[in-house]
């Protein structure tokens, strides 16, 4: 559908442009299936709408849902509010109490905390819209995003297999 929306310009596209168009189409289609109910789907649609030719493609794929999914929604406000609340909570909980813990335990727990924090930051960069999520929401959205990516890969495999069968005959 994404390639069809480009019409006659498909013939003028090089391989890289086709690849980008197919990826953009697949991402928008995958996000539209979720109907803007997840942060990652709204982030994918917003990112696609910001691209040079992406807005037309998004409008063609989403149709009447375009305005609803590209408007700043209450969900985006709520995720921002969650992060702000989390920061307030973190500041209020951090007191300057001195704890007497065995040095090995302190060292092991601080290393574990750093590892978790580092991996969480990497995950935030991988999931669309992950920068504005708290840790729990990030994990929940990541699971949903992985399932959607798996479905996308399966669909693309089926399309590639069907294309090979058609070209082979």
Automatic annotation (TrEMBL):
One of its GO terms (biological process) is regulation of DNA-templated transcription. It comes from the Eukaryota. This is IBH1-like N-terminal domain-containing protein. Residues 8-51 form the IBH1-like N-terminal domain. The keyword rRNA-binding does not apply. One of its GO terms (cellular component) is nucleus. It holds the Pfam family IBH1_N.
